[in-house]
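During the second half of the funding period, the structural biology subgroup turned its attention to how the target accommodates small molecules. The most pressing case was LLP, which had performed well in the primary screen but for which no bound structure existed. We therefore specified the complex as follows and requested a full 3D prediction, including the ligand pose.
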Amino acid sequence: MTDFALIDGELHAEATPLARIAAEVGTPVYVYSAEAFRKRARDFRKGVEQAGRVHLAFAIKANPNLAVIRLLANEGYGADVVSGGEMARALAGGMKAEDIVFSGVGKTRAELAAGLDAGIGQFNLELEEEGVVLAEIARSKGLVAPATLRVNPDVDAGTHEKISTGKAENKFGLPIDQAPDIFDRLAPLEGLNLRGVAIHIGSQLQSLEPLEKAFVRIGKLVAELRGRGHTITHVDLGGGLGVRYKEGDVPPTMDDYGAMVARVTKDWDVELMFEPGRVLSANAGVMLTEVLWVKPGVTNPWVVVDSAMNDLARVALYDAHHDISAVKPSGETFVANVCGPVCESSDVFAKNREIDTVKAGDLLVLHSAGAYGATMASTYNSRALVPEVLVSGDRFAVVAPRISAESIMDQEPIPDWLAD
Ligand code: LLP
């Protein structure tokens, strides 16, 4: 049994009833299935291995929980990190330093130095000056920094504007037409082993077309760089593969993605790297919540749940859709709005949605919450920081406890000079 399914009329994570987790840990709570992560990690690997030997770096921004990192490290994954904090997590979770790629448009000098000290596998450079500084720091330490240039291929990923990264006007990467000259200037620097290029055009892609278009452009760039005498051994194709959030979503399969990559890259003769995030994690998790009230509304009733936009920000931020279902569905449905207790009109998880009929005290889940869920949570409205649970078969572990508003308050000293 994998994923989240009804067993005897009751929603389970693998063989564990979600109601048991709610009773023991409380709600709201994120629940992950270890088996679901493993399955996706293996399927993704199988897909892209059609292209030969590959390096897999989980984009840990999608789900940086240490237990999740350990699980994926056990599957042979490294990490794509975008901060010193994420690098520390990847290492603490058991990923090998050489399997860590450091991406991000604003790495600090301290982060570059920390990456060098840790011996991470690759820095994806976002601008020429960053390469100059990285080379300098590496030289001062007697080290050589393995690096690629992240280029912006100017391709429309066809996804939500706020998660698009590969258009010329986005802040990410170097303009692809300037990349060869920048490569010429950076490659000779002592302290830098500029060995390839990287891209990432956006997230939640529902079509392979923009990816293929971008990869073809990268192939041409690799040929041009080689034509200029550069040795290109690595190409990082980023992440971005979309998942199913709702009925009607038909994201490309991992197998089709791998087949496309194999076809486009067959003559490249490089080591390919990937940075999947959402595709490994989104559907490996749910957020479990309890109905507090069913409040009459003008058109539909409001189902007020005990989770809110601070626990799962995706709906408020990107108008994202998360399927919602009852842990013990009665078979009846009604049309309702589902909202949290936070004092913002954007704290609404669903409007005018046909869902299982529920009443106060019932449990609901928001599906597909394993990616960009807990990690984007906050304590807005002085709510507790939402906990996380990892299930394996019929056992589960709290892999991040609920952090109470009181314990956060304990970290906030009132200055003496306000005392009287
Ligand atoms: N590599 C880089 C350089 C990235 O910026 C990202 C995601 C990934 C890999 C992983 O992309 P994925 O495979 O997960 O699509 N919070 C948003 C998503 C932001 C994605 C940011 N970058 C959401 O909840 O939809």
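Two results from this model are relevant to the next phase. Residues 59, 62, 80, 103, 163, 200, 203-204, 238-241, 275-279, 314, 318, 372 surround LLP (CB under 6 Å). The CA atoms of residues 81 and 102 lie 5 Å apart.
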